Amino acid sequence: MPLIHETFDSLPCIDLDISAQARAEVDTLLADELPGDYVGTLHPLLPDFPSPKLLRNGAEVERVASRQSPTAIDVSRYERLEAPAATGPSSDETNPELLRGWKLTLQNAYASSTHLHTRLQNLALLDQFGKNAWLIGNAQLENILKGIEKELVETKEQIEEVSRARQLSQEGIKGEMDGLDEVWKKSIGRLVEVQLAAEQARRDSLARRREGAA
After folding, report:
1. Is the pTM of the predicted complex or chain greater than 0.90?
2. DSSP letters along the chain, please?
3. Which of 1, 41, 136, 157 suits a disulfide with 37, CB 3.0-4.6 Å?
Protein backbone atom coordinates (compact mmCIF):
# COMPACT_ATOMS: atom_id res chain seq x y z
CA MET A 1 0.00 0.00 0.00
CA PRO A 2 1.57 3.32 -1.04
CA LEU A 3 2.27 5.87 1.65
CA ILE A 4 1.39 8.79 -0.63
CA HIS A 5 -1.91 8.87 -2.48
CA GLU A 6 -2.38 11.11 -5.49
CA THR A 7 -5.03 13.77 -5.02
CA PHE A 8 -6.38 16.30 -7.50
CA ASP A 9 -7.88 19.63 -6.53
CA SER A 10 -9.59 19.90 -9.93
CA LEU A 11 -10.50 17.79 -12.93
CA PRO A 12 -9.96 20.19 -15.82
CA CYS A 13 -10.95 17.66 -18.48
CA ILE A 14 -14.46 17.12 -17.09
CA ASP A 15 -15.12 20.04 -14.74
CA LEU A 16 -17.16 22.93 -16.06
CA ASP A 17 -15.52 26.34 -16.08
CA ILE A 18 -16.77 28.83 -13.52
CA SER A 19 -18.68 31.91 -14.61
CA ALA A 20 -17.10 35.31 -15.02
CA GLN A 21 -18.96 36.63 -11.97
CA ALA A 22 -17.73 33.76 -9.78
CA ARG A 23 -14.17 34.25 -11.04
CA ALA A 24 -14.34 37.97 -10.25
CA GLU A 25 -15.59 37.19 -6.72
CA VAL A 26 -12.70 34.73 -6.20
CA ASP A 27 -10.18 37.29 -7.44
CA THR A 28 -11.64 39.86 -5.05
CA LEU A 29 -11.33 37.48 -2.10
CA LEU A 30 -7.74 36.69 -3.00
CA ALA A 31 -6.89 40.37 -3.38
CA ASP A 32 -8.34 41.09 0.06
CA GLU A 33 -6.10 38.46 1.68
CA LEU A 34 -2.89 39.58 -0.05
CA PRO A 35 -0.90 42.54 1.32
CA GLY A 36 -0.77 45.68 -0.76
CA ASP A 37 2.96 45.42 -1.50
CA TYR A 38 3.08 41.69 -2.28
CA VAL A 39 4.30 42.32 -5.84
CA GLY A 40 7.49 44.18 -4.88
CA THR A 41 8.17 42.59 -1.49
CA LEU A 42 9.83 39.23 -0.99
CA HIS A 43 8.44 36.67 1.40
CA PRO A 44 9.93 37.06 4.91
CA LEU A 45 11.06 33.40 4.91
CA LEU A 46 13.28 33.92 1.85
CA PRO A 47 16.97 34.54 2.68
CA ASP A 48 18.60 37.83 1.76
CA PHE A 49 20.42 37.96 -1.55
CA PRO A 50 24.21 38.13 -1.18
CA SER A 51 25.82 41.37 -2.27
CA PRO A 52 27.59 41.07 -5.64
CA LYS A 53 31.38 40.88 -5.49
CA LEU A 54 32.36 41.01 -9.13
CA LEU A 55 35.49 43.11 -8.63
CA ARG A 56 37.61 43.66 -5.58
CA ASN A 57 37.65 47.43 -5.86
CA GLY A 58 34.14 47.69 -7.31
CA ALA A 59 35.22 50.40 -9.77
CA GLU A 60 33.76 48.62 -12.77
CA VAL A 61 30.44 48.01 -10.98
CA GLU A 62 30.24 51.69 -10.04
CA ARG A 63 31.06 52.72 -13.61
CA VAL A 64 28.26 50.55 -15.02
CA ALA A 65 25.84 51.74 -12.33
CA SER A 66 26.59 55.39 -13.17
CA ARG A 67 26.17 54.66 -16.92
CA GLN A 68 29.63 55.93 -17.79
CA SER A 69 31.41 54.86 -20.97
CA PRO A 70 34.24 52.35 -20.53
CA THR A 71 37.81 53.58 -20.66
CA ALA A 72 39.28 53.05 -24.12
CA ILE A 73 42.43 50.98 -24.59
CA ASP A 74 45.57 53.06 -25.01
CA VAL A 75 46.75 52.39 -28.56
CA SER A 76 49.35 55.12 -28.68
CA ARG A 77 52.18 52.57 -28.37
CA TYR A 78 51.04 50.95 -31.63
CA GLU A 79 50.96 54.17 -33.61
CA ARG A 80 53.78 55.53 -35.72
CA LEU A 81 56.70 56.46 -33.52
CA GLU A 82 58.55 59.73 -33.80
CA ALA A 83 62.21 59.65 -32.86
CA PRO A 84 63.37 62.28 -30.35
CA ALA A 85 66.09 64.76 -31.12
CA ALA A 86 69.60 63.50 -31.75
CA THR A 87 71.87 63.04 -28.77
CA GLY A 88 75.43 64.17 -28.29
CA PRO A 89 78.43 63.01 -26.25
CA SER A 90 77.32 65.03 -23.22
CA SER A 91 73.56 65.01 -23.72
CA ASP A 92 73.03 62.48 -20.93
CA GLU A 93 74.36 64.98 -18.39
CA THR A 94 73.09 68.20 -19.92
CA ASN A 95 69.67 66.99 -21.10
CA PRO A 96 68.40 63.97 -19.09
CA GLU A 97 64.88 64.47 -20.48
CA LEU A 98 66.21 63.60 -23.93
CA LEU A 99 67.58 60.29 -22.59
CA ARG A 100 64.25 59.42 -20.97
CA GLY A 101 62.50 60.24 -24.25
CA TRP A 102 64.72 57.81 -26.12
CA LYS A 103 64.11 55.07 -23.54
CA LEU A 104 60.35 55.57 -23.81
CA THR A 105 60.54 55.52 -27.60
CA LEU A 106 62.56 52.30 -27.56
CA GLN A 107 60.07 50.69 -25.16
CA ASN A 108 57.15 51.65 -27.39
CA ALA A 109 59.02 50.40 -30.45
CA TYR A 110 59.63 47.04 -28.75
CA ALA A 111 55.97 46.77 -27.77
CA SER A 112 54.86 47.64 -31.31
CA SER A 113 57.29 45.15 -32.82
CA THR A 114 56.09 42.39 -30.48
CA HIS A 115 52.46 43.19 -31.27
CA LEU A 116 53.04 43.09 -35.02
CA HIS A 117 55.04 39.86 -34.76
CA THR A 118 52.29 38.20 -32.72
CA ARG A 119 49.68 39.50 -35.13
CA LEU A 120 51.53 38.01 -38.11
CA GLN A 121 51.78 34.67 -36.30
CA ASN A 122 48.06 34.70 -35.57
CA LEU A 123 47.22 35.57 -39.16
CA ALA A 124 49.43 32.76 -40.40
CA LEU A 125 47.80 30.27 -38.03
CA LEU A 126 44.36 31.52 -39.01
CA ASP A 127 45.19 31.12 -42.69
CA GLN A 128 46.46 27.59 -42.11
CA PHE A 129 44.00 26.22 -39.58
CA GLY A 130 41.16 28.76 -39.44
CA LYS A 131 38.94 27.13 -42.06
CA ASN A 132 39.11 23.67 -40.50
CA ALA A 133 38.62 25.07 -36.98
CA TRP A 134 35.56 27.00 -38.19
CA LEU A 135 34.09 23.92 -39.87
CA ILE A 136 34.75 21.75 -36.80
CA GLY A 137 33.17 24.38 -34.55
CA ASN A 138 30.09 24.53 -36.79
CA ALA A 139 29.82 20.74 -36.77
CA GLN A 140 30.01 20.67 -32.97
CA LEU A 141 27.33 23.37 -32.71
CA GLU A 142 25.11 21.42 -35.11
CA ASN A 143 25.50 18.28 -33.00
CA ILE A 144 24.61 20.23 -29.85
CA LEU A 145 21.59 21.75 -31.63
CA LYS A 146 20.41 18.33 -32.82
CA GLY A 147 20.73 16.95 -29.29
CA ILE A 148 18.71 19.84 -27.86
CA GLU A 149 16.04 19.51 -30.56
CA LYS A 150 15.82 15.76 -29.93
CA GLU A 151 15.44 16.36 -26.20
CA LEU A 152 12.77 18.98 -26.90
CA VAL A 153 10.81 16.57 -29.10
CA GLU A 154 11.04 13.82 -26.46
CA THR A 155 9.91 16.22 -23.74
CA LYS A 156 6.94 17.36 -25.82
CA GLU A 157 5.98 13.74 -26.48
CA GLN A 158 6.15 12.98 -22.75
CA ILE A 159 3.98 16.01 -21.98
CA GLU A 160 1.42 14.96 -24.61
CA GLU A 161 1.45 11.40 -23.29
CA VAL A 162 0.85 12.55 -19.71
CA SER A 163 -1.91 14.94 -20.83
CA ARG A 164 -3.54 12.21 -22.91
CA ALA A 165 -3.39 9.72 -20.04
CA ARG A 166 -4.83 12.26 -17.64
CA GLN A 167 -7.64 13.12 -20.04
CA LEU A 168 -8.51 9.45 -20.57
CA SER A 169 -8.40 8.82 -16.83
CA GLN A 170 -10.69 11.74 -16.06
CA GLU A 171 -13.09 10.94 -18.88
CA GLY A 172 -13.20 7.33 -17.67
CA ILE A 173 -14.49 8.37 -14.25
CA LYS A 174 -16.82 11.10 -15.56
CA GLY A 175 -19.85 8.83 -15.29
CA GLU A 176 -18.93 7.82 -11.76
CA MET A 177 -18.33 11.45 -10.77
CA ASP A 178 -21.69 12.49 -12.25
CA GLY A 179 -23.41 9.66 -10.35
CA LEU A 180 -21.73 10.60 -7.08
CA ASP A 181 -22.63 14.23 -7.65
CA GLU A 182 -26.26 13.30 -8.23
CA VAL A 183 -26.27 11.11 -5.11
CA TRP A 184 -24.73 13.96 -3.11
CA LYS A 185 -27.39 16.40 -4.34
CA LYS A 186 -30.19 13.95 -3.46
CA SER A 187 -28.65 13.31 -0.03
CA ILE A 188 -28.45 17.05 0.63
CA GLY A 189 -32.06 17.43 -0.49
CA ARG A 190 -33.22 14.62 1.80
CA LEU A 191 -31.24 16.08 4.67
CA VAL A 192 -32.92 19.43 4.16
CA GLU A 193 -36.32 17.71 4.01
CA VAL A 194 -35.57 15.86 7.26
CA GLN A 195 -34.46 19.09 8.94
CA LEU A 196 -37.61 20.88 7.75
CA ALA A 197 -39.79 18.00 8.95
CA ALA A 198 -38.01 17.97 12.31
CA GLU A 199 -38.51 21.72 12.67
CA GLN A 200 -42.17 21.40 11.75
CA ALA A 201 -42.63 18.59 14.28
CA ARG A 202 -40.95 20.71 16.95
CA ARG A 203 -43.28 23.61 16.23
CA ASP A 204 -46.32 21.33 16.28
CA SER A 205 -45.20 19.90 19.60
CA LEU A 206 -44.78 23.37 21.08
CA ALA A 207 -48.18 24.41 19.78
CA ARG A 208 -49.88 21.37 21.34
CA ARG A 209 -48.20 22.05 24.67
CA ARG A 210 -49.44 25.62 24.65
CA GLU A 211 -52.97 24.40 23.84
CA GLY A 212 -52.84 21.84 26.66
CA ALA A 213 -51.58 24.43 29.13
CA ALA A 214 -54.37 26.80 28.18
Report:
1. no
2. --SS----S--TTTSPPPPHHHHHHHHHHHHHHS-TTTTTS--TTSPPPPPP-SSSS-HHHHHHHTTPPPPPP--GGGS-----PPP-TTHHHH-HHHHHHHHHHHHHHHHHHHHHHHHHHHHHHHHHHHHHHHHHHHHHHHHHHHHHHHHHHHHHHHHHHHHHHHHHHHHHTHHHHHHHHHHHHHHHHHHHHHHHHHHHHHHHHHHHHHHHH-
3. 41
